[in-house]
Amino acid sequence: MSKLSPENDPTSIGNILVDMGVITQEKLQKLGDEFRAQREEMFGQFLVRNAGISQDQLELALIKQKQLRGEKVDMSMLLHVINISKKSHERLLNKIDGFSAIVSKVGIKS
Q: CA 109 to CA 50: how far, in whole Å?
């Protein structure tokens, strides 16, 4: 079985991040070209540094990659995903609370 190039591999970190809606295909292609020119670090870390994705998003993508490749995802990984999701949910609620406070101050009624 021949190895797929990262661009054609649905289990590549870049394609998983595109599927998650974290990065566009166009941005991934551009950054992939830049990465191939330097290759000083893992591609995921390169994306965190250059694409504006968070470490949490990368970690979720890495867990999804293991799943897609049929590798074992252990309990500690699943607990980590739950904690990441909880933090994301809390940040979203804080943004909503902030928006609600602004709406109240300007007198907009729903």
A: 41
